[in-house]
Design brief:
Elements lengths: L15 E4 L10 E6 L3 E4 L3 E4 L5 E3 L3 E4 L11 E4 L8 E6 L3 E4 L3 E3 L12 E4 L11 E4 L8 E6 L3 E4 L3 E3 L12 E4 L22
Antiparallel strand pairs: 1-2, 2-4, 3-6, 4-5, 7-8, 8-10, 9-11, 12-13, 13-15, 14-16
Pfam families: Sushi
InterPro entries: SEZ6_CSMD_C4BPB_Regulators, Sushi/SCR/CCP_sf, Sushi_SCR_CCP_dom
Keywords: Disulfide bond, Glycoprotein, Membrane, Repeat, Signal, Sushi
Amino acid sequence: MCQPRSCESPPRVPHGHVIGSQTNLDVGSEVRYQCDEGFEMEETGEMYCELKNRWAGDLPRCERISCPPPAGIQHGSIEGKDYRYGTMVTYKCDQGYELHGTSYSVCQANKTWSYEPPECKPISCGRLEFPEQGGIEMTDVTFGSVVKYYCHVGYELQGIRSRKCRSNGEWSGEAPTCVPVSCSQPESISNGRYIGSDWTVG
């Protein structure tokens, strides 16, 4: 009884596999390949068993998928230059800024990144208390902002006039105070005297 001629198991493909059953490998049969997740096929992915009991056709290659370069972020940088499937990039903010969002992203099998790029927002130093008998001119309290102190009429500033929000989230210097303005002691008069010892304004 004549037996149909057949081929041995089809050749293996790194990062790929044969689709469907491999029970019928007779001459003339075809097999199709598929790449594993995260890999894409080059060539046709089809081979057939020829009369010489061997496989013919173009043995496919499965190459790792690459994602497009991730979007950059303002006031920050991206660490990592490998954009292939399964690799990770990390985000880092410049000095004086803090990260809002996910600090990393992974290249996925669908050629997209796992997370949206984060934002780098200026660090906040928090609002300052007004000095007694004075106030503060301020428009912002984030990194790089400068505030200026002032005193009400009859008072003068003792200490620094301005402070700056630093990259560590703290204000530079110490808060000044407002002290009463003092006049110099009045001159003496002939054949008379002055009454009082408080030389402050008012």
